[in-house]
Design brief:
Elements: H1 3-24, H2 30-51, H3 57-77, H4 83-109, H5 118-146, H6 159-179, H7 184-202, H8 210-232, H9 235-259, H10 263-267, H11 292-300, E1 304-309, H12 311-316, H13 319-331, E2 335-340, H14 350-357, E3 365-367, H15 368-371, E4 380-384, H16 393-396, E5 415-420, E6 440-444, H17 447-459
Parallel strand pairs: 1-2, 1-4, 2-3, 4-5, 5-6
Helix pairs in contact: 1-2, 1-9, 4-5, 4-8, 5-6, 5-7, 5-8, 6-7, 8-9, 11-17, 13-17
The structure holds NADP nicotinamide-adenine-dinucleotide phosphate.
Length: 460
């Protein structure tokens, strides 16, 4: 393919990536943004395949078929609650691919090492470092979320110092490699050290800090792609990798803010705590219990309602019946809105995706900052399968893993109704004082069952 045409096609694909990304920033345009980004990727792939005859098409088509089949099965089989792990694994594959490509390119260069330019020589070890840390770190994060390994922080003495020492060793190995690129075993040392670093930088992170790891790994996978782009002199890979890297870091910062963690703290693997507060158990104290019938009566008399969805909504798959309730209440003339906490659920945007699936109107989906001051003028705050994001311990309890995280002010509403199965704590393992509040009513049971009952009564 003509090189001007290739450059033009890459530029066009990059513009599609940028436009697609921009559209992803609003739920209204997100679906179209996704399609536009995918179109950009298709163009980039087709042009690369026709431009560079790297391997023969039989292998490419075989890989495409196997990959598509696995992707199709996963997309159909993985539950909504398993999406964070899935995203983690996919980020990891991006990093792993960068490692493989960087090493393969080093092998391909063969005797040409001596004439290879300095920037390529520097980016090979860099790509191996970022790619491997992303791959291994993402797998550890996914294993933690899947419950294959403990979700609690694993801490040991001099953790940060050993991580820093490993990083320093990788930098030194890189310098030696650049001075003498024929020493292939230096790259193997870098891969081994990066593998250990991938594990040791993620295991101390646990509990409520997990979203930061997922979005940080997403950013790393982009950076790994961008460095590989430099190795291959492929402009579209550099641009798309940089876009993923920067948007991932912006998301990381948003998540950090939402959880009151500093980015430096995350980057140097200081995230996590040796907090050993209450485990997953319920306190033996009295709460006010409501049946769906009682709740319906109270809702009937209310004018303004704010709904706070959480992870339990995804577990119960109650988003459709919830939206049905919202439509019923709106038809009855009540003001109903959703309040979305940035880390509600198990991945960034989890609640938005869930509610979009149920066709919840975008104009009643409110972000925390938009709606938090309105709770005080609201009749009922309905908390559906949410826990940590409404836990007042985040405001008051210094030793809690949630301390400092901004929460939704549901306790400022006139009445709080909590729909969950028990008094068990949420993801962070912290008991929730809200359940024992004077104006709190607990509606125990599976959210879908309770809401289905509620809707039936409201419709009568
Ligand atoms: P949460 O604190 O994990 O609480 C979810 C609650 O849902 C649980 O207490 C559980 O109580 C209830 N539940 C589970 N299944 C249910 C069902 N079938 N019906 C009704 N209730 C059910 O959730 P959250 O308030 O959404 O907070 C999210 C937490 O996850 C935060 O700590 C956040 O940091 C963390 N996290 C977030 C992300 C992200 O990116 N959003 C990623 C990883 C981790 P019962 O067992 O009593 O029913």
């Amino acid at each position: 393919m003509n090189s001007t045409l290739t450059a033009f096609a890459y530029l066009f694909a990059s513009v599609l990536f940028i436009v697609g990304l921009k559209m992803l920033s609003s739920p209204r345009t997100a679906r179209r943004g996704n399609v536009i980004g995918a179109l950009g990727m298709l163009i980039a792939i087709v042009v690369t395949l026709t431009d560079k005859k790297i391997i023969d098409f039989t292998l490419i088509i075989a890989g495409l078929l196997v990959g598509s089949a696995i992707g199709l099965v996963l997309a159909r089989k993985v539950q909504m609650t398993g999406m964070p792990q899935m995203v983690g694994v996919l980020n990891g594959f991006g990093g792993g691919a960068s490692t493989l490509v960087a090493y393969a390119e080093y092998m391909r260069l063969g005797e040409l090492h001596t004439t290879t330019s300095l920037d390529v020589l520097i980016t090979i070890p860099l790509s191996l470092l970022i790619g491997t840390v992303t791959f291994v770190g993402s797998m550890v994060a996914a294993a933690k979320l899947q419950g294959i390994m403990t979700g609690a922080p694993i801490l040991y003495p001099f953790q940060k110092q050993t991580n820093a020492a490993m990083l320093a060793a990788i930098v030194i190995l890189t310098v030696f490699f650049v001075m003498n690129p024929a020493q292939w075993y230096l790259l193997i040392f870098i891969i081994v050290l990066s593998t250990v670093l991938g594990v040791t930088s993620v295991i101390p992170i646990g509990g409520a800090d997990m979203p930061v790891v997922i979005s940080l790994m997403n950013s790393y996978s982009g950076l790994a792609g961008a460095t590989t782009g430099f190795i291959l002199s492929n402009s579209v890979l550099i641009i798309s990798g940089t876009l993923v890297g920067t948007s991932g870091i912006i998301l990381t910062q948003i998540m950090c803010k939402a959880m009151n963690r500093s980015l430096g703290n995350v980057l140097f693997a200081g995230v996590g705590t040796d907090y050993s507060g209450p485990a997953a158990r319920a306190e033996q104290r009295t709460v006010v219990r409501y049946t769906p019938d009682d709740a319906a009566m109270m809702i009937d008399n209310a004018q303004s309602i704010i709904i706070v969805p959480g992870y339990g909504l995804a577990v119960a798959q109650a988003q459709h019946v919830l939206q049905e309730m919202v439509s019923t209440l709106t038809a009855l003339g009540k003001t109903v809105r959703y309040a979305i906490h940035p880390v509600a659920g198990r991945m960034p945007g989890h609640m938005n995706v869930l509610l979009a699936e149920a066709n919840a109107p975008y104009d009643i989906l409110m972000e925390m900052d938009q709606i938090n001051d309105d709770f005080q003028n609201t009749d009922i705050a309905m908390v559906i399968g949410a826990n940590d994001v409404v836990n007042p311990a985040a405001r008051t309890k210094k030793e809690s893993p949630l301390y400092g995280m901004p929460i939704l002010n549901v306790d400022h509403a006139r009445t709080v109704m909590v729909f969950k199965r028990s008094l068990n704590p949420g993801f962070a393992g912290e008991d929730n004082e809200l359940f024992y509040g004077k104006s709190t009513m607990m509606v125990f049971g599976d959210a879908k069952t309770s809401l289905t009952g509620l809707v039936q009564i409201l419709k009568k």
